[in-house]
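Standup notes, structure subgroup. Blocker cleared on the fe (ii) ion input:
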Amino acid sequence: MDLTSLSNQFDQKIINKLGLSRAKNKLVGHGYIAGLKALVKVLNIPKPTVFTGKNASLKMCESLSGFGLRRVLVVTDQALYDLGVIDQILQKLEQLGVQYSLFTEVEPDPTFLVVEKGLKRYRADNCDSVLAIGGGSSIDAAKVVALAASNEVEPSALVGILKAKKASAPFFAIPTTAGTGSEVTIGAVISDTKTHKKEIVIETKTVPLMAALDPELMKGLPPAITAATGMDALTHLVESHLSTMANDESCYYSRAGVKLVFKNLRLAYKRGTNMKARENMALASFYGGLTINLAGLGYVHAFAHQLGARYRIPHGLSNAKVLPHILEFNKDVCAPQLADLARVIDVAHVGDSEGQAAQRFIDAVKQLIDDLGIDPTVKDIKLNDVDAIRFDAFKEANSTYALPKYMSSDEADALLVRIAGRAH
Ligand SMILES: NC(=O)c1ccc[n+]([C@@H]2O[C@H](COP(=O)([O-])OP(=O)(O)OC[C@H]3O[C@@H](n4cnc5c(N)ncnc54)[C@H](O)[C@@H]3O)[C@@H](O)[C@H]2O)c1
Ligand SMILES: [Fe+2]
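Run returned:
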C-alpha cells in the first residue's frame, strides 16, 4: 500500500463541501475512516521505552546520557520552571555532563508561534535532540520542534497525517500532568497563532524514544488541573472504547485505564501528595495514549476542541463538559461497550440489561465530574457561534475519528444548547 497516496486522500478538501445532515456526515466520515482503518493496519506505531515510579525521570536522564548527544533542547513552561518542578532533572543532567539549552516559553494550548520560537532556539544553540518536561502543551510543542528540526520544514507544514519524511530528532518526554498521554501518542495538537483553532499533527515519528512517568513531579499539580487533566485521560480511554476502530489491544488499555481513573482520580484530586494515586493516574494517562493511537477519539474531542479554542477552556475541562452528553447520544448503539466499562468499575448490578448497565456507567461519569467540582456547562456558548462550532466539530470528527454513530445538525444544536446549560 502506498502510504503517501493514502495520506493525500485525507487532504482532499471535500470536507469543505460538507452538508450537515446525518446521512452526509456518515457518507463523508465513512469514506475517510475506511482509508484511516487501512492506514492503521499497515502502520507500525512505535512505543517508547518507559520508566515508571519514584525518580523515574532521573533514571531516564541516566539512560539519555548514554546517547552521546551534543546538546539537548529542554522544552517546558515558565510556571513549571518557576515552581522548581524540573530543578532535580536539570541538576541530574548537569551531574551527568549532558549539555542542554532551556526553552521555557510554552503556554497552554501552544501555538505555531511558540513552536517556531523553540525551533529557532534549537537551531541557534546547535541542539541535536529534544527533551520535553511538562503537560501536553510542552510535550506537543517539543514534538513538533523535534520533527520540524530534522525535516528542515516549517512547523505548520507538518499538520495532517504522516507529513514528515525523515525521523524526528532524538526526542524524550517527561509528563508532569496525568491526562494527555502525549508521551506515547502519535499526535501533537498545535493551535493556529491568530484564531487559536487547534491543528493536529499525526505522525508515528513523533513518539518519543523514552518516556518517564514520575509521580514525584505531579504531587504539586493543583486540584483543578488534576481534575481536568484526569478527565482528559478518562475521555481518551472511553472514546477509543466506543470507536469502530477499537480492537482487543485498545480495549485492554481502555479497560485497565478506566479502572485506574475511577480508583485514583478522586484521591489524586483530594490528596495530591498521595504518590500511589499519582502513579496510577500517570499510568492511566499513558494507557489513554496507547489506546487512542490504535482506535482514535470521537465527538467529545471534536466538540471540546472547538469550545476550548473559542472560549479558552482548558482541554481536559472542555472534554469533561462534553463527555456525558456524547455518552448519552451514543448509548443506543454503544450499550455493550458502556456496559463493559460499568462492569470494569463495578457499578453494574447482577441482572442488569446492557442498556441499564450502560446507563450506570454514564451516571458514574457524571458523579465523578461532580465530585471533582467541575461545572458541567459552558455558559459562554452564544447562539451566533453555534453554526461555526457545529461545522468545525463535524469537519474534525468526519475526517479524523471512527464514530460509532453520526449526528445530524439538529442533534448537534440541541447538544450545544444542553452544554450551555439552557435545557435538560
Ligand atoms: N498529543 C496528544 O496526544 C494530546 C492529547 C490530548 C491533549 N493534547 C493537548 O495537550 C494540551 C493540554 O495539556 P495538559 O492538559 O497536560 O496541560 P498543560 O500542559 O497545558 O498544562 C496546564 C497547566 O498546568 C501546569 N502544570 C503542568 N504540570 C504541573 C505540575 N506538575 N505542577 C504544577 N503545575 C503544573 C502548567 O504550567 C500549565 O499552566 C492541549 O493543547 C491539548 O490539546 C494533546
Ligand atoms: Fe484529549
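Discussed briefly. The chain is about 55% helix and 10% strand.
Next: hand off to the docking folks.
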